[in-house]
Amino acid sequence: MGFADMHIHSIYSDGTLAPAEIVTAARARNVELISVCDHNEVRGTFECARIAREIGLTCVTGVEIDAIHEGRDVHILCYGARLDDSALLDRIHRARARLDGMSATLLERMARDGHPLDMAEYDAFPFDHSRGGWKMLQYLQARGLTRALSEGLGFYERYGVRYAEAGFDAGQYVYVSELSGSVGDGVYEAEIVVDSIAPLSFLWN
């Protein structure tokens, strides 16, 4: 019996592997069912699904969307939806912009506080996907403000850069359907969970 990994991040968000590398690693480890669910980004899941299809590996398209529920950041895992639907893509792109905006806000507040940070320099900073994390964490380390990428997380809280104030869409969640099928000798089932505020038409193929 093979394995399944339904929550993989690629280099299109904060993962360290390109879609082709994910497929290769899955095949080498006897993983028969995968899903790339990048943060507010769908390029990786489409690319992975195409490559997986070519070698007979089952890949369910997915995405992880940031939203706010009762004042807290929650991540909506959405599997098998129509990720080319304009309403859903608008929500995904809006969430991505809010997420990137949090780092811009942090930089501005830290610069006003006297830290040696510059927006133009940050924009031109080369992000190294192989190191993991995201651009701001690597930039803070490069400027000598942290020793490890994880230390950069504390600056967001210290400077009051929080998800609840970033403008993410509100989230109310509903169980919609099941995604099912066969892979190898087994059967897989997965819940599809989406934001109930968004139109649900994109769910059905």
Care to describe what's here?
- With 205 residues, the protein is of the alpha/beta class.
- It is built from six helices and seven strands, in the order βαβαβββααααββ.
- The chain has helices spanning 19-28, 43-55, 86-112, 119-124, 135-142, 153-158, and strands at residues 3-8, 31-36, 58-59, 62-69, 72-79, 173-183, 186-195.
- The strands form three sheets. The protein has a three-stranded parallel β-sheet. Strands 4-5 form a two-stranded antiparallel sheet.
- Helix 1 packs across helix 2.
- The longest helix is centred in the middle third of the chain and has 27 residues, at 86-112.
- It is globular and about 55 Å long.
- It starts with a strand and ends in a 10-residue tail after the last strand.
- The model is unreliable at 173-205 (pLDDT under 50).
Instruction: Report helical residue fraction.
Output: 25-40%
What percentage of amino acids are in beta strands?
15-25%
- Main beta-sheet strand count, sense and barrel state: 3 strands, parallel
**CA-based gyration radius:** 18 Å
Low-confidence stretches: 173-205
Helical segment count: 6
How many β-strand runs?
Answer: 7
Instruction: Calculate the mean pLDDT score and round it.
Output: 85
Key terms for this structure?
about 200 residues, alpha/beta
Describe the structure concisely for a colleague:
With 205 residues, the protein is an alpha/beta fold.
